[in-house]
Amino acid sequence: MTKVPLSDACKIFMGQAPDGVSYNEEGKGFPLIAGAGDFGDRTPRPKKFTTQPARISELDDIILCIRATIGDLNWADKAYCLGRGVAGLRPNTNKLDRNYLWHFIVANKKSLSALGTGSTFKQISRSDIETFQIPLPPLDEQRRIAAILDKADAIRRKRQESIRLTEEFLRSTFLEMFGDPVTNPKRVKVVQLSEITTRITDGVHQKPNYTVTGIPFISVKDITSGVLKFENCKYVSLVDHQKFTKRCKAERNDILYTKVGATYGRPALVDTDQEFSLYVSVCLIKPQRKLVDPFYLNAVLRTSAIKNQADQRIKGIGVPDLHLDQIQKFLIPLPSMKEQLEFARKVAAIENLKTHHVVSHDELNILSNSLTHRAFRGEL
């Protein structure tokens, strides 16, 4: 399959920040896309507007993130002002199908990101984008490939939506049974998290000496899915592990809670007897078993009612940091043990359904990735 530089089939224009005095949040002028933070699922969700746009996208342009999360994409569903963190791609429709280009960039996000340079943050240049090689079969073949990949992506997205709906059902079940712990409309007993736990602490504060094998060392990335995973974790020596766990030792049915970084506020129940150590980015919560069921508490910590409290208490400039003293003050509904167990049973049923959707979604991802790679090797 013939390959050409992207600039041969596509107009590329780099974003340029408008004058800061023109920014507003009242909807005056053009919506501003400064970077990936203004990206939505497929179309932008800008936070600011500008009355002095410097670079303007058109309807159906592809907006490409060129720094931080290099390779993220959004469709321009209308005209936008493009800031320095993005670039606009406008295919020559006589040579390049828009949907084909979208899927090509999705498939080659890692390769594009690898071109990024810079000490503070990685960024790709106009030259990087212009010279990036794209397979260019005839337009009819591009459209055929894009149609197949569109269908695969649509199925995957529907499964993703099913996962979101199960999570929404969990939140609504909680509110139906207990109400919001802050406003407490159902007059359920509400306590601070510290009152129903024996300890709330975090992992080792200094960066450890990692080893190739040894004892798993868990950080935020290993629990953000809501499940404790060891597949991609790092390791420390047994000696270091024994030193670290003198202060912070996780045990079965304890709860881990992310406290640093963009994915703060996500709990995961410890469902294993395997030994592991924790990094400072993870909070360890030890429930008082006579007062609170660990499965109930884990489910409560996952609800939007608690996440909202985390959002209000977050500290830090740049990197979010949820301090332990703030986690200790979370307001937790404490119904009778019978009601806790009833809620935990409902959660288990919902989780079984979600697990089914997640497995299916993962399988669809594998299929979609396989189709995509075959498509751009000319094997589809």
Can you give a write-up of this model?
There is one protein chain. The protein is an alpha+beta fold and 380 residues long. The N and C termini lie close together (12 Å). Helix 4 (139-178) packs antiparallel against helix 9 (337-375) and helix 6 crosses helix 9 (337-375). The strands form six sheets. Strands 2-9-6-7 form a four-stranded antiparallel β-sheet. A four-stranded mixed β-sheet has the order 3-5-4-8, with no helix packed on it. Strands 12-18-15-16 form a four-stranded antiparallel β-sheet. It has helices at 98-107, 109-113, 126-130, 139-178, 238-244, 294-301, 304-313, 324-328, 337-375; strands at 3-5, 10-14, 23-24, 30-33, 48-50, 62-65, 73-75, 81-82, 86-91, 133-135, 190-192, 197-202, 215-218, 234-236, 255-258, 267-269, 277-278, 282-287, 331-333. 34% of the residues lie in helices and 18% in strands. It has three domains: 3-136, Adenine-n6-DNA-methyltransferase TaqI, Chain A, domain 2 (Alpha-Beta Complex); 139-175 and 337-380; 189-334, DNA methylase specificity domains (Adenine-n6-DNA-methyltransferase TaqI, Chain A, domain 2, Alpha-Beta Complex). The chain is built from nine helices and 19 strands.
